[in-house]
Design a protein that fits this description.
This protein is of the alpha/beta class. The chain is built from eleven helices and 23 strands.
């Protein structure tokens, strides 16, 4: 490994405050989030200005950068009040604004605040000239389109203006359209993917019917429910990080602002461990690839294989088949721990019961198995199960835990 390469930044999704704090706890260098205007994840909870201010302070106090996504393609009626909104984000101390729309870009420039501008992957930047175009206009970082190969990224990196940062996605869902330019959701459900309201119809299960055979429906290489006709496999590059690091990519981005805190924690830990291990010893990194992949498998989307995206060519020719995966259900998050009594106070995410064999996934330390021998409510009364979302209960654990450690169902591999 060339010691000339610096560690790439690990940027994690933060769809709400809990996910932001989870990303920070599990080792993200930066988080990206959205406020209530002009973002491409309307389905995420997102942040009010007050919540964003608190989030930025929380992250900065722990040495983590915050990037605010204002990355939808805005209509004219959405520009009223936008300068004030962007000024507020800059004044809170956000490290950058992520945008794709030249109109929004021009407003960010005109507010004349000291804040970096990152060009969103939605801008579909696929060549060095486009990167330099944005750089000359004042962008600090370009988030490249997902459709590029590693060779193309290498060429871009070598032919852009000095100081230009390059960010690429390394994990998560991939769109069946070019850089998210999809209209199926809008056509079928009047929910515009390009304005943050995608209903993900590419994930729906479809059947086909031949016109002359009424009532005869056929699946397409699927099961009795149908076939996800348009669904792309998810990307997972945790086993190929050396090539990406050696390319000089500045930031590795994890997709998933509308996914769970469990997804955020497991994925960030896998990539944090992999990056750090590689910079210690390449042999150590290679030895631990199955460990990293096991962690990313924990919260992978059911029924979907992983692939390496377009980094090494056609994704369908570079599938990473998931064999014998033990996916986990996310049961609870640790809020507090009393070392004297070995009591963990947890918030329920999914029903669990006395007698369940679980595992506790820790952001510091190894995962360990834990049988739920007893459960107490906030009145210290014994209960047999935890059926209500958000319920706060206490359990005894065999090993120390910390806030944001997560309890999931399943046995260790």
């Amino acid at each position: 490994m060339s010691r000339l390469n610096k560690k790439p930044e690990l940027a994690a999704p933060a769809g709400n405050s809990e996910k932001l704090k989870t990303a920070v706890a599990y080792g993200a260098d930066a988080v990206y989030l959205s406020g209530e205007r002009c973002n491409l994840r309307a389905g995420a909870e997102n942040f009010s200005l007050s919540e964003m201010n608190d989030a930025i302070k929380y992250a900065h106090d722990r040495g983590v950068k915050v990037y605010a996504a204002v990355n939808s393609y805005a209509r004219d009626n959405e520009f009223a009040g936008l300068p004030e909104y962007l000024c507020d984000i800059a004044d809170m101390g956000a490290n950058a604004i992520i945008t794709a729309d030249p109109g929004i870009f021009s407003v960010v420039k005109k507010i004349n605040k000291k804040i970096d501008i990152h060009i969103s992957t939605q801008a579909n930047t696929v060549n060095a000239r486009s990167v330099n175009f944005w750089r000359e206009l004042g962008a600090k970082r370009i988030i490249l389109a997902r459709e590029l190969s590693l060779d193309e990224i290498l060429f871009i990196k070598k032919n852009v203006h000095c100081g230009t940062e390059i960010e690429t996605f390394v994990h998560g869902a991939m769109c069946m359209a070019v850089s998210g330019r999809c209209h199926i959701s809008n056509y079928m459900l009047s929910r515009d993917a390009n304005r943050g309201a995608c209903a993900h119809p590419c994930r729906y299960e479809y059947q086909i019917k031949e016109r002359s055979r009424d009532g005869e429906w056929y699946t397409i290489d699927g099961d009795k429910n149908g076939f996800e006709l348009f669904a792309a496999d998810d990307m997972c590059m945790v086993g190929h990080l050396p090539a990406l690091i050696e390319s000089g990519i500045d930031s590795f981005k994890i997709e998933g602002r509308i996914k769970s805190a469990f997804y955020v924690g497991t994925t960030v830990k896998a990539y944090r461990s992999a990056i750090d291990d590689y910079f210690v010893d390449n042999v150590l990194y290679n030895k631990k690839i199955p460990f990293y992949r096991d962690i990313t498998d924990m919260s992978s989307r059911k029924g979907t294989d992983f692939c390496t995206g377009f980094y090494f060519g056609n994704p369908m020719q570079n599938k990473l088949l998931i064999n014998d995966v033990k996916r986990r259900d996310y049961l609870a998050m640790v809020l507090e721990y009393d070392a004297e009594t070995r009591t963990a106070t947890v918030m329920q995410k999914k029903k669990f019961n006395v007698g369940d064999e679980t595992e506790i996934f820790r952001h510091s330390g190894d995962t360990f198995t834990q049988k739920i021998n007893s459960i107490k409510n906030t009145n210290d009364s014994e209960i047999n199960n935890v059926p209500h979302p958000g319920q706060i209960v206490k359990i005894i654990v065999d090993q120390p835990v910390q806030p944001y450690d997560m309890i999931c169902i399943g046995l260790l591999n």
